[in-house]
Amino acid sequence: MELIARDLAVTLSGRTVLSGASVALRPGEVVGLLGPNGAGKSTLLRAIAGHVASEGAVTADGRDLKALPPSARSRLIAYLPQARTISWALSVRNLVNLGRMPWHGLGQGMSKSDTEICNDAMALMDVGHLADRVSTELSGGEQARVLAARAVAQDTPALLADEPASGLDPAHQLMMMGALRRLAARGRSVLVSLHDLTLAARWCDRIVVLREGRIVAEGAPGHVITPDLLAAAFGIRAHIAADVDGLSIVPVALTEQMSGA
Amino acid sequence: MSYARLNLGLMVLAAGLFILSLLVGPAGLGPVDSLRGLVAGGDEATMIIMREIRLPRALLGLCIGFSLGASGAVLQGFLRNPLAEPGVIGVSAIASLGAVLVFYSGVAGASRLALPAGALLGALAASAILLAVAARHGSTLTLILAGVALSSLAGALTSLVLSLSPNPFASYEIIFWLLGSIKDRSMVHVWVALPLMLAGWILILLAHKPLDALSLGEEAAASLGIDLARTRLMVVAGVALCVGAGTAVAGAISFVGLVVPHLIRPLTDRLPGKLILPSGLGGAALLLAADVAARIAIPARELNVGVVTALIGAPFFLWLVVRSRKDVF
Which of helix, strand or coil describes residue A64? Predict the structure, then answer.
């Protein structure tokens, strides 16, 4: 499914937080969304998912997503929010099973294939061994992976993930990015917001950089992540090194402009 | 415990207490005579006692208990707050105020439907305000705050009416009604309340799927295809119908809606949608048991069932909270 957002603009309490944002997501692609805090990354993800009112168009294979009811949209796009909310002491298995909800009619329960999809999602996020644990008693990182498994279990052509790697240990950060890549290899398209520049550079096919609600750069990581871009978008100076696996970016100092601020 | 077995067990418990409620009373009828009087007629006095006194009382205990238990479960799930109970949205307080105004105006004696009508008008007004708030604002917090404001206003106006009451007897009557009771109700009360409650039950039970999704927050629920605005309207309207109808015929019965979901939750897989039906059945069982206790606790004088539910429920709830080392929800 080709997911295209065109000229998205969002105004909250009279303040424009996103304007003129256009992104195209193709099957098999992992696109990284970068930008400083408050740049509009979460708003862009929410606007594409239809969870915030926006101007502009969002289409899936040419179909207007805004015109679709929430139930139909939920079979096309899964959205993993940044906030990790679990209100009741649900078991991990029951929580991940909620991902199958869009595919169930009234009174319809979990089928054998639903269970297989959920088991696969838990394995992908390395939480299969936690299936019978109480989700609210898990560590923050484990909860993040369980919630990601819920979004994967939704089994939609597109996945929008808001900072899924934050709060994870290094091994599970790599595991999370590997899982998103495997989803892409199965033909899904993934749009993921990240703060770790090296993860974004190494695991994403394309990078979209936001600043103050506008897209300021877009393209392959090697072309987009440059000293000038890091200074302009993030206000940092960084060591950028390249090896066979891609770029490594180590922020080392604030730019003069930022340190003055 | 499996979901089906839990519901079956609670159904049997509620049915048993319903029959017990039919058999207990000051008339001192034997069980066989009682049931014969109810089903087959026979002795006219027995028939009147069974069909016009005990049957409406037991039916109201069953239906109001179910309404309160289910409303408590749906509100706790919807607001994602274990402290939520049917009174939190203010409908019962405004309904009570409506009934109190009927007392004050002196028309309560004119018809036995005057009190329920006043309470229903109150519930209707409160529901209209809440639905307008729910439709206009997206936030559940706004809904809770609106409910708190309505409850506070109703409480203040009820106190005002009490203080302006023309004589102590009228004040006593108002306070007694506010304590909540299903004593001396007729089948007319059942027919007034039941259709409204039925509509409320349908709306509440249809909200089970959105409630499960809301366990993960509003954004994740929306991502799972839940129409949050529609869910908000269904829950508010369903609870308002249940609580408004219940308060109209029985006054404000406290604690059932708060405590029952907490009693039932550990027996379920804690998905809030799957708590609604067993909480309703548990609420019916608790209110019927409390009503039987209200009749036999002090033989010389019958207690108000609202007092008994709080007297049994509050210490038991405290024990449950203290005993549990982990969160009770």
Answer: strand
Distance from CA of B210 to the nearest CA of A (A): 9
Supply φ then ψ for residue B165, to 5 degrees: -60, 135
Q: Is B93 exposed, middle or buried (0-12, 13-18, 19+ CB in 10 A)?
A: buried
Q: What are the counts of helices (DSSP H) followed by strands (DSSP E) for chain B? A: 15, 0
Q: What is the pLDDT of residue B303?
A: 85
Q: Which residues of B touch A (CB under 8 A)?
A: 80, 209, 212-217, 219-220, 222-227, 269-272, 326-327, 329
Helix (H) / strand (E) element for A219: namely strand A214-219
Kindly list the distances between the CA atom of residue B295 and the CA atoms of B84, B182, B251, B259, in Å, as whole numbers in the listed order. Answer: 29, 11, 17, 22
Residues A155 and B27: their CA atoms lie apart, in Å, by: 64
What SS3 state is found at A109? coil
- The winner for highest mean pLDDT among A37-46, B36-45, B139-148, B231-240 is A37-46
What is the ipTM, given to two decimal places?
A: 0.93
Q: Least CB-CB distance to B215: which of A73, A90, A99?
A: A90
Give yes or no for a contact between A35 and A213, defined as CB atoms under 8 angstroms apart.
Answer: no
Return the residue in A42, A87, A97 with the most chain B beta carbons within 10 A, the one to mutate for interface testing: A87
Residue A215 near residue A43 (C-beta atoms within 8 A): no
CA distance A206 to chain B (A): 24
Measured CB to CB, residues of chain A less than 8 Å from chain B are 46, 49-51, 69-75, 77-81, 83, 85-91, 94-95, 98-99, 101-102, 104, 106, 136, 147, 150-151, 154
Sign of the alpha-carbon torsion through A52, A146, A166, A210: negative
The DSSP output letter for B10 is H
Say what the pTM is.
0.91
Tens of pLDDT, residue by residue over A41-78, are: 999 999 999 999 999 999 999 999 999 999 999 999 99
Instruction: Evaluate whether A221 touches A227 at the Cβ level (below 8 Å).
Output: no
Test B220 with A69 for CB contact under 8 angstroms: no
pLDDT mean across residues, chain B: 88
| Separation between Cα atoms, residue B222 and residue A70, nearest integer Å | 7
Phi, psi of B58 (to 5 degrees): -65, -40
Share of chain A above pLDDT 70, in %: 99
pLDDT over 90 at B140, yes or no = no
Whole-number pLDDT of residue B328: 47
Q: Cβ distance A177 to A165 under 8 Å?
A: yes
Torsion sign, CA atoms B126, B129, B132, B133: negative
Tell me if residue B15 falls in helix, strand or coil.
helix
| Nearest CA-CA partner of B260 in B242, B237, B280 | B280
Nearest CA of chain B to the CA of A236: how many Å?
Answer: 32
DSSP bridge pairs for A6: A57
Across the interface, of A78, A85, A98, the residue whose CB is closest to B212 is A98
